[in-house]
Amino acid sequence: MTIAYAIRPANPGAHLFHVTVTVEEPDSQGQLFMLPAWIPGSYMVREFARHIVRLTALQAGQAGAGRRVRVEKLDKHTWRCAPTDGPLTLAYEVYAWDLSVRAAHLDPTHGFFNGSSVFLLPIGHEGARCTVDILPPEGPAYADWRVITGLTPARGTRRGRFGAYTARDYDELIDCPVEMGTFTLGRFDVLGVPHEIAVTGRVPRLDMARLTADLERVCEVQVRLFEPRTRRAPFERYSFLTMAVGEGYGGLEHRNCTALICKRDDLPHLGLRDSTAGYRTFLGLASHEYFHSWNVKRIRPAAFVPYDLTQENYTRLLWAFEGFTSYYDDLTLARAGLLTEVQYLETLATTMTTVMQRPGRLKQSVADSSFDAWIKYYLQDENAPNSIVSYYQKGALVALALDLSIRAATGGRKSLDDAMRLLWRQYKAAGAEYAGVAEDGVLAAVEEATGLQLARAVREWTEGTRDPDFAQLLAPFGIDVERRPALDKPHFALLGCKLPGSGEAKIENVFDGLPAQAGGLSAGDVLLALDGLRVTAGTIDTLLARYQPGDTVELHAFRRDELMTFSIKLGTQPPPKITLRANPRAGRRAQALRRRWLGG
Ligand code: ZN
């Protein structure tokens, strides 16, 4: 039996999709329907059901005439229809005005949706095949709209056009987002597998040839990492669905595609010869999501097999699934020749500096941060830097520390790549019986793949809050670690708070144990004057640069519109900034280890 969906941008200006779902043989006791509470890859309960408006149910009658069926709501995201004795159709509208990769967005320029935001699941039919009729908006203004999705075109539908598409089951249906509109399309092959990138949004003089050439290099490095012998990608085709905007950054991984959002300025334009930092950021994002095709979409924590879409799914392993992916995203760019060695070491140093500057790393382990992602990492408030460690960033550092340890101990014969390949082989060998990676399974795979005993170090880095000793870990690779006081942003270095880049000097975060906190300032306070001189977010650093650590300043600020005065003793030990430098005088052995690491 097939579950038949149809979706139409019924009113793009009002951001409304019209959706129907038909169940041929509904539950005779009354069919239940539910909408996921979260979308896999983004670990937060988002309550997509709040955007469902005007839901009705019909029992199909003769000649298309339908009889209204009573529907009642059982909980926030579950509906029950009164018992029927024939095919049942639910019709509803979905409000789509979330410009992110996680939900749905529709206006007269384009439409985008994840199935988890728009397709109700008939409970009990999770394994049923699905068809989706993707219909165009009405009117000549939309005649040029096309479609890009990882769903399979049904017979009679041309890929890239509106029409019927199919999915093996509900899980696949909601893992294949759809973009529709007049996007710019680029195509390329990776080791014989067709890939495409669609760019939505206005991007003047986009250099699509460069973009596809660079993405091809990124993808090829990763396919070769996991399948050095067969060079076979785990999908038959792959799509990058990219939304270009003024300000924005994000990505969500799927089994055979990814949805990305980026700054239009980060995409390359014709005539641009060098790569910009923004372009490297975009390539890093694309690389990150592509790596997830193996790590988290297929190799998964046991807690995600299967996903429970009604509530939080707890695992202590996001440091491996997100952190290792973050490690490999930039490493892939280095191995693909898209980051120089100097640029790669800079990105590593930035990650180290960011982690070191956040006091939260001393209070939360990355395993705890993984477990609590649902209520902490994804729900960050002004105190987050003091209370949370990022399982992305510190997880990437754990991956780095592991990779360096393994390479140094085995003279470069083994690496973290071997552990990733072992996890991948385990996934493939299990087939339909795959139970996912047990909570101690990543460490077990690392030890099995390398023959090394790393449990103590890994537990200290992941279950505890110890920082890997990078000076020691990088020495065999001929890389020096330097720590200098971070003085580039005086308000951060001397006051210990974070301000926006411009506009009023409204404090975003106050860091634990630093002068702003010691002097009584809080997040939300609006700084007005420093020693009697007016300050804004844009001017305070110039003024503060005239002062020394240890000086005392008077700050005037508004809190709840009340003028307050604070006396602050400026920092004597500004937080460190880390730089990494390849030592040109390093020995041959160190150079060889480094080449092997960064060369793949
Ligand atoms: Zn990720």
Q: Could you characterize what this model shows?
A:
There is one protein chain. With 600 residues, the protein is of the alpha+beta class. Helix content is 28%, strand content 26%. The strands form seven sheets. The chain has an eight-stranded mixed β-sheet with strand order 5-4-8-2-1-12-15-14. Strands 17-18-19-21-20 form a five-stranded mixed β-sheet, covered by helices on one side. Strands 24, 26, 27, 28 and 29 form a five-stranded antiparallel β-sheet that branches. The mean pLDDT is 96. Bound molecules: zinc ion. Zinc ion (ZN) binds at residues 288, 292, 322, 325.
Element layout with pairings:
Blueprint: E1 2-11, E2 16-23, E3 32-34, E4 52-60, E5 66-69, E6 71-75, E7 78-81, E8 88-95, E9 104-107, E10 110-113, H1 115-118, E11 121-122, E12 129-134, E13 146-149, E14 152-153, E15 163-167, H2 170-173, E16 178-181, E17 184-190, E18 193-200, H3 208-226, E19 238-245, E20 250-253, E21 257-263, H4 277-291, H5 318-335, H6 341-356, H7 366-371, H8 384-387, H9 393-409, H10 416-430, H11 441-450, H12 455-462, H13 470-474, E22 479-485, H14 490-495, E23 497-498, E24 505-506, E25 509-510, H15 515-518, E26 526-530, E27 533-534, H16 540-544, E28 552-559, E29 562-569, E30 576-582, H17 588-599
Parallel strand pairs: 1-12, 18-19, 19-21
Antiparallel strand pairs: 1-2, 2-8, 3-7, 3-11, 4-5, 4-8, 6-7, 9-10, 10-16, 12-15, 13-16, 14-15, 17-18, 20-21, 22-30, 23-25, 24-26, 26-27, 26-28, 28-29
Helix pairs in contact: 3-4, 4-5, 5-6, 5-9, 6-9, 10-11
The structure holds zinc ion.
